[in-house]
Amino acid sequence: MLRLAPFAEGGAHVALRGGVRHVAARRRASARQATAAAATAIGRAVNAGHDLNVENTPLLARTVPGIVEASIGHALLADALDLGLAETVRPYVRACAGEDVDAPVTM
User: Fold this and answer.
1) Which has more pLDDT, 107 or 59?
2) Which fold has domain 2-96?
3) How many CB atoms lie within 10 A of CB 28?
4) From the DSSP assignment, how many helices (H) and strands (E) are in the chain?
5) Per residue in 46-104, pLDDT tens?
6) Distance of alpha carbon 53 from alpha carbon 50, whole angstroms
7) Quick one: which of 28, 60, 67 has its CA closest to 44?
8) Three-class SS of residue 17?
9) Closest Cα partner for 1 from 39, 29, 34, 31?
10) What is the largest CA-CA distance in the chain?
11) Which site from 15, 31, 60, 68 is most exposed, i.e. has the minimal number of CB atoms within 10 Å?
12) Are 4 and 50 in contact (CB under 8 A)?
C-alpha cells in the first residue's frame, strides 16, 4: 500500500497552485508514480490509503497509475453521516475516476 499521509497533508489542492508547496506536492506525486510503476511492473497491485478524501483523491487518481483500491472509507462515512450515503457516494466515485469535485458542505 502506498502511504499517502504526506501527500494528503500537502493537500491535492496545494498541488494545483503555484509556489514552493506546488513543487513539493508534485515531487511527492512523482515518487508515488515511480513506486506504483515499479509495483505493477513486477505484477503487484497498487492500493492507496491513509487520509484520502474527496479533495485529494482526484489528483492521486490522475497522477498515480494502476491503483486498484483506494482507502476512502473513513472520509466517505464521515461525510455520509451529514449528507446521506447516496449523496456522498456520487462525488467519491467521480473523485476516484480523477474528476475534480467540490468538497461536501457538512455541518
Assistant:
1) 59
2) TIM Barrel (3.20.20)
3) 18
4) 6, 3
5) 988 888 999 989 988 988 878 898 889 899 999 999 999 999 999 999 999 999 998 87
6) 9
7) 67
8) coil
9) 39
10) 45
11) 68
12) yes
The DSSP annotation for 52-78 comes to --TTTHHHHHHHSTTEEEE--HHHHHH
Q: Where are the domains of the chain?
A: 2-96
The burial class, CB within 10 Å (0-12 / 13-18 / 19+), for 100 is middle
Provide the grid cell at 93.
466515485
All 3 cell numbers of residue 106? 457538512
Residues 6+ apart with CB under 8 A from 57: 12, 70, 72, 92, 95, 96
According to DSSP, the residues that pair with 46 across neighbouring strands are 67
- Residue 80 C-alpha cell reads as 455520509
* pLDDT tens for each residue of 7-37: 455 444 434 444 455 566 667 778 888 888 9
